Amino acid sequence: MRTSTLMMLLAAPLALAACDSAQETETMEDMPMDGMAMEGHDMSAMDAVDGAKTASAVGTVTAIDAEAGTITVDHEPVAELGWPQMVMAFDASEEVRGDISVGDAIKFTVEATDEGNTITAITKQ
């Protein structure tokens, strides 16, 4: 009886931890996070954006999704926005995506808002 009581006491915290009330990522309608390689990055180092901010950055295009209207970039740290080096998807119009291809080294201008991040200009390096 003593062993079963001990087992119940040890199992209870694990059972409660499994009952997390966080929203399922499949139903989240915010910024899509799929395709963003952020493992190993200290996301707490990123500053929240207050209003719209514009910054220049450099990186390498890792994916282009014409249907979603995004370009995924492995970018260097962006000091103006407090961003560490990471891979992330940015909104980009068809005109901005232009003749950019996966693997291109680019310099780009990003407008960061609370609603998302948009590449407003891009040039190949």
TrEMBL record:
Extract the signal peptide range. 1-17
Keywords linked to the UniProt accession: Signal
Task: Show the InterPro entries listed in the entry.
Answer: CusF_Ec (IPR021647), CusF_sf (IPR042230)
Note whether Nucleotide-binding occurs among the keywords. no
- State whether keyword Oxidoreductase applies: no
- Top-rank taxon of the source lineage equals Bacteria
Gene3D superfamilies in the record: Copper binding periplasmic protein CusF
Q: From the Swiss-Prot or TrEMBL record, give the protein name.
A: Copper-binding protein
Query: What taxonomic classification does the UniProt entry list for its organism?
Result: Bacteria, Pseudomonadati, Pseudomonadota, Alphaproteobacteria, Sphingomonadales
